[in-house]
Write a structure and sequence with these properties.
The structure is a single chain. By secondary structure, the protein is an alpha+beta fold. It has one domain. The chain has 3 helices and 5 strands; from the N terminus they run E-E-H-E-E-H-H-E. The two termini are 19 Å apart. The C terminus is likely disordered.
Length: 146
Amino acid sequence: MIDLIERQGEVTGFKQGLAQIRIERSASGCSGCGSRGACASGHAAVQRVEMAMPEGTQIGDQVTVSMPSSSVALAAIFGYLLPPLFLLLGAIGADMIYGNDFAAVLGAAAGLILGLLLARLVSHFTLGQSLSPSPCVSDSPYGEFL
């Protein structure tokens, strides 16, 4: 069975073919997270996302937005591991080649930029759709979903 991260939301509008969804954040999700002290996303009570929705979706519809928790964990690994790793590799490589501190600083900056770009590309191409939330539209205000 796949563990899913689910959030309830409401369609508030449409923009360029995408539904704008207002998602209420629950404090219970942040309380169990080890990164809650350093995470900026836990401070906002409301999050707004844009995503494609099925035909017939209207403003005011209640939706459940979900995605596999493994996708979130893998994206975090890419985002938090690759940039610092490439920063170090860039600094060490430039220092070994040029042998001065200024080159090491420039190598670190280049490595960080390369690491950020690589993390973005790797997450986009390897995770693809698994990082895209999937909606479930409710036709009842009482939480029964299609």
